[in-house]
Amino acid sequence: MNNELPDDIELLKAMLRKQQSRLRQYACQVAGYEQEIERLKAQLDRLRRMLFGQSSEKKRHKLENQIRQAEKRLSELENRLNTARNLLEDASSVTDSPDTSPPSENPIASKPESPGRKSSRKPLPAELPRETHRLLPAETSCPACGGVLKEMGETISEQLDIINTAFKVIETIRPKLACSRCDVIGTTSS
Fold first, then answer.
1. pLDDT tens-digit map of 44-88
2. Residue 36 lies in a domain
3. What are the CA-CA distances from residue 166 to residues 72, 80, 93, 124 (Å)?
4. What is the pTM of this model?
5. Please, what is the Cα angle at 145 between 141 and 149, to 5 degrees?
């Protein structure tokens, strides 16, 4: 670094202004880092209290039960949706058929929806960086008949993650598989 200063007063003033400007920028950065550290410490304390609190076991069991119920309901609805799609395809391919009576059982009918929160979150912005995890099934054969499973769709879930004050989207893709022999439908777990 050059330690010699110019003799010109205007150059010295310009150097001083530039240095003061840099110092203000650094002070703003430091204040920002301090705020972020305090926020993260508070978040860690809150998470530790949730994890190790007196009622954490009760909450964990309740949450696990709610997750199991939601997964069961989702599986039922996916099966009903696939049955309805098959009926729709069959109906559209057999429009000439003389027997056009509806099936005796309504596969789409479901229980009235329980009053609860519906997910109405908008998709995450496309410009955010993404990390995609594709969950492949451990078994590629049908558990019912041993036939080969073929992909018939997928479920994509998005999770927003903050990494060193940067955002990225983690996409989890779960292929939906159906047996080519017996039409048993399954989804990759976890």
1. 666 666 655 656 566 666 656 666 676 676 666 666 666 666 665
2. yes
3. 35, 40, 51, 14
4. 0.28
5. 30
The DSSP bridge partners found for residue 170 are: 131, 159
In-domain check, residue 154? yes
DSSP string, 76-99: HHHHHHHHHHHHHHHHHHTTT-S-
Question: Coil, strand, or helix at residue 10?
Answer: helix
Alpha carbon distance 172, 186 (integer Å): 17
- Regarding whether 63 and 39 lie in a shared domain, the answer is no
- Supply φ then ψ for residue 100, to 5 degrees: -110, 20
Residue 10's pLDDT is 92
Q: CB of 172 within 8 A of CB of 131?
A: no
Least confident range of 15-24, 43-52, 150-159, 162-171: 43-52
155 and 179 co-located in one domain: yes
Written as six digits, the tokens of 86 are: 């098959």
Contact (CB, 8 A) for 152 and 183:
no
Q: Which helix (H) or strand (E) holds 35?
A: helix 9-52
DSSP 8-state symbol, 162: E
Q: What per-residue confidence (pLDDT) applies to 17?
A: 92
DSSP-based three-state secondary structure for 14: helix
